Amino acid sequence: MKVGEHTIHFFRTTANLPLSGKRVTRIECTVHLGACARSERPCGTEGAGVGVADCSPKDVEWSVTGRKIAMRRALEALGYTKEVREAIWRAFHAKYGVPKPRKPRGVNPVLGYARSGMQGAWARS
After folding, report:
1. Which of 107-116 are b and which e, b meaning 16 or more Cβ less than 10 Å from the residue's Cβ?
2. Taking residues 112-123, what's their average pLDDT?
3. Per-residue pLDDT for 30 more than 70?
């Protein structure tokens, strides 16, 4: 993905965690300026910010969530200004979709109490 002069790559592999041996999907994000050093991924370009996210294979939306986490970590490593980060995130959301807004959690009009926390008859008083 190209954003202005910045190049962003996502590279996905499967790996086993060293201590537990659990299988995870590892997503690596590389953010750098200019052309890539190599054509294979990860490209290994000098001065690139690299972010890694390990996702469980049981996660439903691991591809988008993992990309977000990996890209956030890569951008933190580079220390870009707010304007550059906003442009990169706008391009990311244009390509992969904007997250849906959460529904507000308030008082349920039928039950008469909030849905979060304890929800027994004794909790209404």
Report:
1. eeeeeeeeee
2. 53
3. yes
